[in-house]
Specification:
Its cofactor is Fe cation; Fe(2+). Belongs to the fatty acid desaturase type 2 family. Residues 286-313 form a coiled coil. This protein is mainly alpha-helical. The chain has a single domain, classed as Ribonucleotide Reductase, subunit A. Helices cover 65% and strands 3% of the residues. It is built from 11 helices and 2 strands; from the N terminus they run H-H-H-H-H-H-H-H-H-H-H-E-E. The protein has helices spanning 7-28, 63-77, 79-90, 94-120, 126-139, 156-180, 184-214, 216-228, 240-249, 255-269, 280-316, and strands spanning 323-327, 333-337. A two-stranded antiparallel sheet has the order 1-2. A hairpin with a 5-residue loop joins strand 1 and strand 2. It is globular and about 65 Å long. The relative contact order is 0.12.
Length: 338
């Protein structure tokens, strides 16, 4: 491949695109207020103010909805780390900086709204929730460092491509979580959050499309790196593997959703398998992505088969909690006794 463009050069080349898409974002965004979607009238004082502490019988959410809501919340809680990561690569000057700060302001209300909903409705144990928040934020998030299984090479295009897929995945996860709650208020709240995430995805996706036009082989290298090693930002949350299985079996987010509703649509938008400007190593990496899609299709089939077997067993057990899910290294389900 030709010598890579430095991040500084690419930032400069993309700045007019960023400014145009930032203005588009501002024109498309529909303001909303988190407090409008919290049932405050249901709120009661907790023990420190003479009220009653939480107990499990107070929740109206299913196990799947509780796990998904908490996972979504603590993922959003790591915003300081995400801000640092994108500011590190995109900078805080000019249109790039305006976008970074706008994105951060919009993302910040997601965690606020989710926590207010869960605490006011007593959907989960607020003490355990706070312990988890402290643990997650202390761990931080750095996909390229800190021994977290990072894989970023540190390029601007790595970050842009990662968030293009991650924002879409988060949009879908939030929307499906809202539906899983079985509560019209939660559904409305998650729809608002999902709409934000969708606009964020569109911004990152379209700026990345411009990067493909400027440096196709270089951007292709980042795409290959990210998709071959993709992890959601919540992977650092304690118990992530177990929670991911609960969420997958519950239909909130699984490998089939990831492939059909996240990976394939974005690749189609970027015309990855139709591009004629990829050469040498870039073309080879594109071909390997074709193999990755085939591999993911196989994993989807395995998961569906394992999920069906698990649900059949659960039906026979009449819902008794005599076993739990764990995820093996092949991404399929197995059962293990408590």
């Amino acid at each position: 491949m030709p010598a890579e463009l430095t991040d500084l050069v690419l930032l400069h080349e993309l700045e007019p695109v960023v400014e145009r898409y930032l203005n588009r974002h501002l024109s498309m965004h529909r303001p909303w207020n988190p407090h409008d979607y919290i049932p405050w009238s249901e709120g009661k004082n907790y023990y420190a103010l003479g009220g009653q502490d939480w107990h499990p019988g107070q929740t109206r959410l299913s196990d799947v909805a509780q796990v998904a809501m908490v996972q979504n919340l603590v993922t959003e809680d790591n915003l300081p780390s995400y801000h640092r990561e994108i500011a590190l690569h995109m900078g805080l000057d000019g249109a790039w900086g305006q976008w970074v700060n706008r994105w951060t302001a919009e993302e910040n209300r997601h965690g606020i709204a989710l926590r207010d909903y869960l605490v006011v409705t007593r959907a989960v144990d607020p003490i355990e929730l706070e312990k988890l928040r402290m643990e997650v934020v202390n761990r931080g998030f750095s996909p390229g460092r800190n021994g977290q299984g990072g894989y970023f090479a540190g390029r601007l295009t790595d970050s842009m491509i990662y968030v293009s897929f991650q924002e879409l995945a988060t949009r879908i996860s939030h929307r499906n979580t809202g539906k899983a709650c079985g509560d019209p208020i939660a559904d409305q709240l998650m729809a608002k959050i999902s709409a934000d995430e969708n606009l964020h995805m569109i911004f990152y996706r379209d700026v990345t499309e411009a990067a493909f036009e400027i440096a196709p082989n270089q951007t292709m290298a980042s795409l290959h790196l990210i998709l071959r090693n993709f992890k959601m930002p919540g992977f650092a949350v304690p118990g992530f593997r177990r929670k991911a299985v609960v969420i997958a079996v519950g239909g909130v987010y699984d490998i089939r959703i990831h492939l059909d509703e996240v990976v394939k649509p974005v690749l189609k938008k970027w015309r990855i398998f139709e591009r004629e400007d990829l050469t040498g190593e870039g073309a080879r990496l594109r071909d390997d992505l074709g193999k990755l899609i085939e591999e993911l299709e196989v994993e989807c089939d395995k998961f569906e088969q394992s999920k069906s077997r698990y649900l059949e067993r659960q039906a026979r057990l009449n819902g008794h909690s005599t076993a739990r899910n764990v995820l093996n290294t092949e991404g399929t389900l197995r059962m293990s006794r408590r």
